[in-house]
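Box S2. Input/output pair 1.
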Amino acid sequence: MANLFDFARQQQATWSVTDLTRYIREMFEVDFRLQDVEVEGEISNFTRARSGHLYFTLKDGNAQLKGVMWRSAAQRLLFDPSNGDQVVARGKVSVYDAGGAYQLYADKLQPAGRGNLAVAFEQLKERLNEEGLFNPDFKQPIPALPKKIGIVTSADAAALRDILNVLRRRYPLVEVLIAPTLVQGDTAPAQIVAALQQLDQRADIDTILLSRGGGSLEDLWAFNDEAVARAIFSARTPIISGVGHEVDFTIADFVADLRAPTPSAAAELAVPNIADLALGVRGLQNALNSIMRDRLGQLRQHVENMTRMLGNLTPEKQLRHNEQRLDELTRRLENMMQQTLREKSNRLLLASASLRAFSPQATLDRGYAIVRDADGKVVKSAETIKKDQQLTVRVADGEFRVRSDK
């Protein structure tokens, strides 16, 4: 392959397009000033290819510069570039042979005038908020009387000592389980996620404290990691975040069930004050004593009333009362029986009179007669009588025989 010096020695007037383009590219590459440049401009024609590479144009009021960022560098971006963004790109300038154009091969890209981390923070915050990770409806209540608390922080951090001191002072009954992790650096987010998941899988952890001391935005950046945010949101155990100082806010603060301004404040929010509980217990004890005194007074009065009532309910008094009641019921029963007998007698007399009025004898007394044939059957129709038939006629005072002349 011909190099720059080979082309410099060539004297012929005609070059191939390939050779001339390669010569120009090598001129760019030997100029050290073009191998590490920072260019500020507005992004336009931005494209993210399926391969993960980024293609864009940087422009200002007078010129344009094509740019490309390979996927390996694009994966390290902390913000999402878009058309119209004013950015500062850093990389090298070279020639794209196939297109015959020079372009910037960027390995770093950050917003102009604003910190790269600040923009990344705002973009992630907006995206997670739109997904609902900050929604108050998903936040869990913090247990009022936890039995065991898990702590995710650095094992040698001053924040851990502050937390333990607060827990020991406010509520020494609580047990503590520490899941140590890095809280700063590139590997910190993965360790924080693993520590959170380890504690969340335990059934005996009531609350998890996620904390570290103060620092710069870069120092606290592990708590702005998207994986950490999603691990907090998916946890079944309530989480209190206490990261940095009161003025510091992280993505973890927005996702956590409760945000504390400092690690010590997180410990105070996680447990009650045992002195306040003791004061409350004394108040309840006094109230209970008062209620018991009132109740005992009511019961004493009730016993006195019952004693008086029992004096009126002795067996002797009850027996006399029952004897009087028996005499009264006996008299009422006798009266009822006599009244019943009189009614039955009257009804019997009336029934006897009715029977006498409608008896066969009464009918005969009124002049009627009963005719019977030789078999003793009553003759009810003259047509049944035969000539010379023997008949018996009964009248009021006796009977006699006759013979039919029919």
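Box S3. Input/output pair 2.
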Amino acid sequence: MDIKVTTLEGKASGKVSVSDAIFGLEARDDLLHRMVRYQLAKRRAGTHDVKNRSEINRSTRKMYKQKGTGNARHSTAKAPQFRGGGRAFGPTPRDHAFDLPKKVRALALRHALSAKQATDSIVVIDDLAVKKAKTSTLRTTLSKLGLENALMIGGAELDKNFELAARNIPHLDVLPVQGINVYDILRRDKLVLSKSAVEALEERFK
């Protein structure tokens, strides 16, 4: 499969040949769903916490005698039904992450790339680099290419000027090829790959 390559100025710059095993699969929604859930669960902090009755700093003395008062039986004022008592069944710190096999994660990334290619949402640019780190200039350049909501993947090393110019543009994410992931691919309308990123992906899934 061949994909057209353009420059940042919108000029044609030839074609790049890509593997059907990476960009030509029939996308599986179940795989993509599992991977997105895996990523979102993994990044949850899980630091939510409340004090249960054992953590409340309060007297452990029995409130009143067991029998003869006509009231319900109670032990200490730490019980959840009393003001200032512990919380019953409240959240405690925990890890929300779950395991997903490495092969499944790799396959999900290939299906995400294929899903973008199937809707003509992949743009290959010869080099993600600019001479000056100027946000307004880059925004104008990208809007001419129709890239107002995009994930941009550069090579192993990002061009510093491009990174600085792009980081203040809303709805635009810039990542090195090592950081490419299913969630970021699916949350943006367009996927922009540099030629070096395409070559790195081909090598990765060889």
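Caption for Box S3: The beta strands are 2-6, 12-17, 122-125, 150-153, 172-175, 190-194. The chain is about 35% helix and 15% strand.
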